Amino acid sequence: MEKYALDSYLTEIETTITKRGKDETGNFVCLKETIIYPGGGGQPADSAWIENNAILKVQKTNEGIRYYLGIEVEELPDSVSVKIDWDKRFDLMQQHTGQHILARVCEDLFQVRITKEQITVTDSFFEIDDQLNALQLKTAITRSNEIIRQHKNISILFPTEEELAKETLFTTPPKYFDNLRLIKISDFDIIGCGGTHVNNTAEVQALALTQVKEHKKGTTLHFACGNRLLHQFETNQKQLAALTLQTKVPVDALALAFQEQEQTIKYYQTQVALYQVNELVSNAKELSTHFVYSEITDTEPKTLQTAALQLADIYPEALICTATSDEDNLRYHLYQKKADTRHQVGQLIRLVNQELAGRGGGSPTKGDGNIPYLQKDTFLRYLQQ
């Protein structure tokens, strides 16, 4: 019997082991009664213990729920104590009920459709099939917190088909089936759900958006509620205090200060790249009549490509190779202004891959690859042929 489906607040019970076994996952037991939510519907499983042994995994099967333990399950008594991690359970209850509230508010205010929802131990979110502007998002959060403060009772229902037909709060009424479980928030919302919830909206405490991501199919709303929201606030405040102390910049000016710092970093990165391009060009060596090589330590692919283009203007008939190295690898860029039917760049790189355990590819005129650095001399001799 799944007691968590009737009462989310049960934290410990005594029950009986109905089966012991071992499969490819490990040693498991099945229980006559359980308070452990096994996961599903976008909510993770509880963390729990059987006789003080941590449950490693919970798995639903046709014969029941299997609880995997890191011990020999034959050592357990027939009657066992089961205890859940209440802090984790209550956190997920707050997030799950908060998700129901915010989702229904968005549906009512903006006629959106919920397309996906997920609650984890670190993040909670759901997706809608439309995009909302800043004012709409603010309105949704304000309304959600009003619902929370209204102390609306939350009930678990297992309706008959006749009782289901009388409920009028559905956005989309579910089809009836045996053991259909509904979560009803007073006069505000009702929806089919198998997860764990608080008994009153006030227990959600508060709700806030933590991130908003727009995409082609709509918007993903990330949020936090209750104790998790308070913890995130406290953590963020400590981080802000540390940043203001280190930077000597007030909180309301931090964003601008970091933007200016980012622009400064980009400027110097550009100057370094220009210097490296000039170094590659000035230090280039014509190793044979139609092959030019230049190497520098620790640079970006774009720098290699820019230098190769400049070298091609100086040596228009040559195959250009610019490269950068570290302890183990040589990363290179090949370029030639005109495709050589005998030595197309992409074909050369494929041959290098085969002969020297390299990786990469390209077109007839340009391409990128890398080889073990120990193969450098062989690589250069190969390209000079």
TrEMBL record:
Keywords attached to this entry: Cytoplasm, Metal-binding, Zinc
Annotated Threonyl/alanyl tRNA synthetase SAD domain residues: 180-222
Cofactor(s) demanded: Zn(2+)
This protein's record includes keyword Zinc: yes
GO biological process, one term: tRNA aminoacylation
GO MF terms held by the record: aminoacyl-tRNA deacylase activity; aminoacyl-tRNA ligase activity; ATP binding; metal ion binding
Domain of life: Bacteria
Keyword flag Lipid metabolism: no
Listed name of the protein: Alanyl-tRNA editing protein
Organism: Enterococcus saigonensis
